[in-house]
Amino acid sequence: MAKDAVDVVIVGSGAGGSPMALELGRAGFKVVVLEKGPWYKKDEFVHDEILNSRRNFFMPLPWDEPHLWRAGPDKPYSRTNEAWTANCVGGGTIHMSGYFYRLKPIDFRLKSELGAIAGANVADWPISYDDLAPFYDRAEEELGVSGNAVPHPFLEPRKKNFPMPPLSEHPVAQEIDKVAKSLGYHPFPTARGIASTQYQGRDACTYCTLCGSYGCENDAKSSTLAAIVPKAVATGNVEIRPRCMAVEVTVDPKSGNAKSVVYLDAEGVRQEQPAKVVVVSATAVESARLLLNSQSSRFPKGLANNNGLVGQNLLFSSFGQSKATFRVSKQKSQHPWLETTAPFVNRSIQDFYLMPDDRFGFRKGGTLGFMWSHPNPIFAAVGMARKGEAGIFGKALKDKLREYRDSKILEFEIYGEFLANDDTNVTVDSNVKDKYGIPVAAITIKRHPLDFKLTQFLVERGEEVLAALQPEKLERVGTAGETTILQGGTCRFGTNELTSVLNKDCRAHGVKNLYVVDGSFMPTSGAVPFTLTIVANSFRVAQGLVERMKKGGT
Amino acid sequence: MARSTDEVFPAAPGPEHERAREGDWPDDPSRRVFVQRLSFMGGGVVLLGSACKEKAVVDAGAPAVKPVAAQALSTSHLTFTNQDFAILSAATERVLPKDDDAGALDANVPAYIDRILQTPQLENMRKNFVPGLAALDRRCTRMFQVGFAEATPTQQDEVLTIFKNSPETSGEARWYEMLIVLTLEGFLGDPSYGGNKDRVGWNLVGFSLVNKNKADPGPGYDGASHLVGLRCGGGKGC
Question: How far apart are the C-alpha atoms of A134 and A242, rounded to whole Å?
Fold first, then answer.
């Protein structure tokens, strides 16, 4: 039986769903948030690598809730748990590292600036950087971001500095500054979604070092769980329902509007939550899956999918990485900073965000972020052991583990433009169902060759910086990866109903009370992590929706 | 944020994994050994080229959940027969042999594996891992006329190396990966799971971050009991 209708039902409580809930609740609208995962309390975030990083505390198990994955339409699918973010209140903002960058003005008009790219579906955004800028301010304020905006060639226009000063840095940051500047680059402090001071009743970071991939035990990390959800609940208008898995968005056959969200509650009982407005924000992959699984006579191919574009133009972030290993015992006289244990490097280089010409084979580049290698020991050791002919065990493996004890590993990772194309998308496979009996998301990914040119170039530049620091060893991890916890596309927004799923308000073309506010709206990836942009955009969409709802609209 | 992939997990049949190999593996299809991701996120999730992709499929199978937290460690093992436990002990000690630093047995790695394979998350791995011990033993017996647990370290290493170097999708290679991953988890995981005794594993790699923070597991913490609770992520799949 259907529950009492509310004003708005939101699917997902992460970067996209929570800001919507907050703004709607503040405006006096009754909101229900359906979150498929549990609502963890901060004291449940324990420093236990097995629990956090190696089982289903955050991500579902691949045999319970698989994603299908294939590297191109001509390849077979296999089951994986790739492209999930945390299933819990707060979503991916719980285990994020919180590298918070804004997009640049160029990211909003890539096609106008660079022209079409063969084999890629490049599109301008229907809004400009200036349209989003006030909401970046808002997002930084509401979440709490620490940093220091210093001039560099690609510093985005900003009205003010970050709400909190930067976190304490490891002294290697100064060393990176020296060598990067000597190479002609402009390193700058990476802003973080981590409280460097007490902030809105939240404690400051204690520099525990087990940060990315963990939940924060003292709410210092600016997850939506810590920063947004409590404010939303405090309005008295927002109800968070954890352990509620959305199955389908139903449609009123007469109007063609969204009518309700059908979901399975914590006991597995089928429930229906009607609402005037339905907001979907379950990650780009899972939101596409939900819409594609919501088939009706009005929308036989899935909700809002009459033009066949739901799930198309999937985006991740292009990834490359290298690691510099310093031997502490041998190199500490040369590098006294090796004996300092501070966790944060917080240095970025964006000199190659947009290349002035295509002499290196690409124009749109990306961001280099420097950091200490993740300290999880099991993760590190499994990497050392490898497998197959390259695998080692016995004394050889123990020697590696001993070397690791005497090592500090500095690395960079790349957030690069990821070009949308016809062969990179999400569909659903009705033959493969998850533990709930719902058809799962099937991901096809075929990378555009330009992506690899830019990651290759950026990795080489990053390696120049690392090499100048004179490590004992410099290893390339790779130049052709993708970061699947950063997701966009699948419901791109635009002005043309034939070429986009959402309008510029992130409302579905043709379903006038359906919104999608995770990364799905993004037509292009930009070349920074998506999280802050998703939060900012959600605040932007919320403002428009509140205005319309106050006038009786949707 | 990003992390490459080095992960292992038991998985079920996908086409490329259907090939039952001759030799040590029982040809009952339900006993095929498959490997899948075990480390979900080191510090993030990233795919890096096809070389790092290791995916497969798992039979959902009815989970026989035993509440591990309630069970004390004892000489009567939860997962293994005494004979299998002896083989396992020998194998883990070859992965991390005692030298000037502690080895797998010093860390109680076999006890960790015995216990962790009772968690519902590793139901499938248990089904695949346990028969692999007998396969290892048979291979050793055929090669050296002595069981794995009684073989010399050199002989043991030779058999393990054969498993390690077997074709990527073979049962042997996948079993070897499970052995490595479970051994390293038992050596370097939170001591509450029964391994990493006296933090000998952490001492070897110099990991000292879990020592004074309020989020560090305190007395009475039992990671495995949390895992049991996680089986129900909500919904009817519980």
Answer: 31
pLDDT band at B236 (very low <50, low <70, confident <90, very high): very low
Q: Which residues pair with A408 in a beta bridge?
A: A326
Give me the amino acid identity at A15.
Answer: A
Across the interface, whether the CB atoms of B190 and A529 are under 8 A apart is answered no
DSSP helix/strand/coil, A92 = helix
Alpha-carbon torsion (B192, B193, B198, B204), positive or negative = negative
**CA-CA distance, B53 to B47, in Å (whole number)?**
7
- Residue pair B21/B65 in contact (Cβ under 8 Å)? The answer is no
Q: For residue A261, what are the CA distances in angstroms to A305, A440, B238?
A: 17, 18, 22
> What average pLDDT does the structure give for chain A?
97
pTM to 2 decimal places: 0.91
Contact A50, A256 (CB under 8 A): no
Query: Each residue of A122-140: b (16+ CB within 10 Å) or e?
Result: bbbbbbebeebbebbbbbb
Cα B169 to Cα A232: distance, rounded to the nearest angstrom: 49
**Alpha-carbon distance A543 to A546, whole Å?**
5
Asked if A415 and A369 count as a contact pair (C-beta separation under 8 A), the reply is yes
From chain A residues 422-461, the ones with a CB under 8 A of any chain B CB are 434-437
Sheet holding A78-80, edge to edge: A78-80, A67-70, A439-444, A425-433
**Strand blocks (E) in B10-103:** 46-48
> Taking every pair of C-alpha atoms in chain A, what is the biggest distance, in angstroms?
77
* ipTM exceeding 0.90, yes/no: yes
- 8 Å CB contact of A50 and B185: yes
Chain center to CA of B183: 6
Residues 6 or more apart whose CB falls under 8 angstroms from that of A293 comprise A247, A248, A302, A428, A438, A439
Residue B187 pairs in a beta bridge with none
Whole-number Å distance between alpha carbons of A171 and B129: 46
CA distance A19 to chain B (A): 23
Position A267 pLDDT exceeds 50: yes
Residue for token digits 């045999």? Answer: A63
Specify the 3-state DSSP secondary structure of A355. Answer: coil
Question: How many Å apart are CA A168 and CA A161, to the nearest integer?
Answer: 17
Question: CB atoms < 10 A from the CB of A340, how many?
Answer: 11
Q: How far is A144 from chain B (nearest CA, A)?
A: 19
